[in-house]
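Two proteins follow. First one:
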Amino acid sequence: MARNEKEAVDVVLVGAGIMSATLAVLLKELDPSLKLEIVELMESGAVESSNPWNNAGTGHAGLCELNYTPQATDGSIDITKAVLINSQFEVSKQFWSYLMDKGGLGSPRSFINPVPHLSFVRGAKDIDFLKKRFDALSAHHAFATMEYSEDRGTLSEWMPLMMPGRPEDEAIAATRVESGTDVNFGALTKELLNYLSTLDGAKVTYNQKVKGVERNGEGWSVEIQDTKQGGSRELSARFVFLGAGGGALPLLQMSGIPEGKGFGGFPVSGQWLRCDNPEVVAKHQAKVYSQAEVGAPPMSVPHLDTRVVDGKKSLLFGPYAGFSTKFLKNGSFLDLPLSVRPSNIGPMLAVARDNLDLTRYLVKEVMQSMEQRLDALRKFYPELDPADWRLEVAGQRVQIIKKDEKKGGILQFGTELVAAEDGTIAALLGASPGASVTVSIMLQLIERCFPEQVASAAWMSKLQEMFPAREKTLQDNAELYREISARCNQRLQLDEPVSA
């Protein structure tokens, strides 16, 4: 393509992961006349955090993740975050079901499978916490099917791989929600990108490196270099979405919007132990979460997961945290130092000062031997055979560092939507639970950046068609929650058993 060739579109989305793919499809469903393009640095979509081997803890619905239900000093359990994430996952299921009805997605088994979600604890203190958590959650209609047990016979049925070899006097307990899922967001992303390719005015281009993002009247000019064919071009757009995972922060800084000043990134890499031995895999049909170590980031909560990728089951255990200055798995070691700005160096130094536990934890994780990693797995699976497990490097996560009036800066886990005041550009920063609540996050973006269109009769009607109930309604209306959830489960074939 000729250098500096210019083209005008309505929307440019940077990064061909689950976030951009979801937003692009939502916008085209709301306004089929929109002209949009997704530009991706790699040779295909879903290479970074959306890749199934880079985001092991998928299918987050607040059912088993203990860090979503913190315990207050008075001993009470706050279930607010778990209920919110559960309702957001149900919103995601509504969108996928809507696309299934349209023929926009292939077989649901290609990206979502039923896998029970369990929380597992050891010792009197954690058992007391788990029981209180169960009492609090099971009283809410979204968690009414949750079961609790300390009975070893019951636990052997729930976790047949994890019980043999365990000391008889070990105090253990677990909760289970049978209706949990495993989601392959890489496969889902590719389904969405394929669907987009069938729509007029939608395009996905690869090997595209964004070199500049600048104001252009009421919109933006995006300078793009073709890394394979050479040459560059310029896209003019009324709206730009920076959905490049860990790479979104440098792009946000490139835009120069005041709302992006003060943000920094703390990259954390992950490693997993993976098992593909069919005999072992067949004995564990669950995602089992436990308590994180003191000082560990929420994304490092240990869990032993069933994964279903391309129709084949595997087990993953971890994560084991690591540190790299890259913002993307395929990024540069200069990503972190080049992200330092006068506006964010203060918050970044404050976070370094206030998170010594995290620093010590990361150093300890990086220095671990394979045997030490296996010892952590033995707390879940006492009779493991080391020959069945191999170490794999997962994707990069860039946790958010932001300004704080009291502390100077805080390390924020989760996701944050950063948008310009005029709504013409937005970036998504952060990580978990990310992919599982993508649809809710992208709906928030649409409401913030397209307020006039959202208020129109056409968009309101279409949104109601796609989403019969949003988060607040799902949280408050038990009957409607059960009705819509059952309908989605049927459409996504989640009420049918998955083959071994």
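Second one, unrelated to the first:
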Amino acid sequence: MSSDSEQPAPEPAASVTVTDPKSMRALAHPLRLTLLGLLRSDGPAPVGRLADAVDEAPGTVSYHLGTLAKWGYVVEAPELASDGRERWWRAAHDTTHFEPLELRDDPARLAASVAMRQMFLQHNLSEQLQALEAEATLESEWLAASSSGDFLAHLTLEEFAEMTGEFDALVTKWWDRGRTTREGTRVVRYLYNAFPRP
């Protein structure tokens, strides 16, 4: 019989829905958001490798991983450690989900969700700026396949809801296909927002 340490680790759950203000505020931190993103995109990793990736001290990284673990975003992966000194971590979920409509009637949850989403937007902008700076060295084929833009449309509420549903279905299709690394693939980011213009 195999020991617990030899059992294969469970696959991450597809998504976690966040509603607790403290849990949302745990994500409203740039380093924690970066660490969670690395574990979700690149898979499990030891503290040392994560510290190198984010250019922070291992102790700092361990502290923030502990905060993420407290709220269930990451879990330890001891089965991957080569010795007792090495601490490995994995993402507990593939994505984070929230429902703005369900959060706005509670002042504490609304404030926490706004702080969390502001951090998401800042994180996304930072990544987009890095990609822009890297275009000069990006292979021509990958640059040609890239896209960006925005548009305005005069839509009824029903049309707006239909458009959003089609976007979500499109993203789900390609997210399902690209969940695992295959030969010739690289991580591709697709960012979009659909909202009534203020």
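SUMMARY FIELD: The radius of gyration is 19 Å. The beta strands are 13-17, 45-46, 74-76, 88-91, 93-97.
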